[in-house]
């Protein structure tokens, strides 16, 4: 079998630019696909952090002006990753985040920035880079969604196969219709059978409409988004694509998330040396200013602080958590109200609740290694990665029964405990009351050391790597190409 050539298009990639799990997936999937004899090159915007990382082994100038400025592609290999960085200073050479400035305000020209990414993606698909003729283009989320609209009108036949992956339907890339003339697409693209959406434009819808196949990041979420309750206005588009929409559960990079070698930890451990974890718990307590109360079950949170993640519910049930003698550490950033809520809670209960507002990769590893349980009370969750990290690190995930969370954690109900397969705690519906019950259940299980150890061990033994998902993507790609 020959190697398949894939062009991935995305706006984030770990470790260079990350606002969430999208980056982790875009960073890890190429390695998983290499094992399946698929070679991926990834096109990402040339943000400052990306440009300083790519050794530009090869530079390809883009002819003419790309939406009002000069641009070039820097092609290089970093470790095992083939990067194509779109160096367009007028669009991407800015401080702040990938989508917003330092004050959190969206860049006013995001429509143009990600149209440019998509246009160049389509050009590469059609042969812009000599020697690279992709068999398939894989676009991630709305930022890459327009790629397939450009590709559709660049070539009606003889184009590569196309797969669109939805990481989160809550972000759709919606813009006013006025932007349309600037995109350089033919008038016929502005239609219900195209990129039009309620009188405006949706980049995600464009991807969903024009892609040959659609995937999302768990089977559970693939089912949920067909319904009006969870489809965020796109359920009709998704239902119309019928069996061409499937769910493949994410993995995590088990070289990055490896408790036996993790350089961020006070003590490394594995299942056979799980006792060493106690040192990580002590370290975590001291880093978050908590009492060294060995009897207290220690809950951890690593999350964006947004409505999606349901952490307002956690604020509501803090009295229950504290009343049960537990402690809490929260690492996160996001909505000002939630940040304030957790800061205030830490100030009100010193020694029992600790909070670090901010984004800290190393600390996220320490929370996973030191917590007894990781709370993920999301209102919806396409996949979720922190519960997978928790499984690997012997922290018991306590999750809402939604999307990828319910697909990746086996609830410690009597049947699962009896069969010896439980890996965590699930609760639903996602309300403060049910979260309260879940916390009480967790504390009760924590007080039974043998049962708890079994749940931890099951989690640590479960395969959260990219091996199986990599195979599933490979099968999907090959089946599509064989059509
Ligand atoms: P989402 O992409 O919706 O934010 P995921 O669970 O898929 O949720 O991915 C979140 C990723 O971001 C994980 O790798 C998690 O460890 C990381 N993360 C989230 N918040 C923080 C933070 N404050 N500091 C460090 N890492 C974080
Ligand atoms: C999104 C989702 C999250 C998922 C991640 C990676 O950010 O919110 O659930 O794990 O993408 O696919």
Your description of this structure?
The protein is an alpha/beta fold and 483 residues long. The protein has two domains: 4-251 and 467-482, Rossmann fold; 271-461, Rossmann fold (3-Layer(aba) Sandwich), CATH 3.40.50. Helices cover 38% and strands 19% of the residues. It is built from 21 helices and 18 strands. The protein has helices at 21-34, 48-51, 89-92, 110-125, 141-145, 147-154, 180-183, 203-210, 219-224, 235-240, 277-287, 311-316, 318-323, 336-348, 361-370, 386-392, 403-408, 414-419, 432-446, 449-461, 467-481; strands spanning 4-9, 38-45, 58-62, 71-78, 81-87, 136-140, 161-166, 174-175, 196-197, 200-202, 213-216, 245-247, 298-305, 327-334, 353-357, 373-376, 396-400, 425-427. The strands form three sheets. Strands 3-4-5-2-1-6-7-11-12 form a nine-stranded mixed β-sheet, with helices on both faces. Strands 15-14-13-16-17-18 form a six-stranded parallel β-sheet, sandwiched between helices. The chain has a three-stranded antiparallel β-sheet with strand order 8-10-9. Helix 4 (110-125) crosses helix 6. The chain is globular, with a radius of gyration of 23 Å. The relative contact order is 0.10. It binds adenosine-5'-diphosphate (ADP) and alpha-D-glucopyranose. Adenosine-5'-diphosphate binds next to helix 1, strand 13, strand 14 and helix 15.
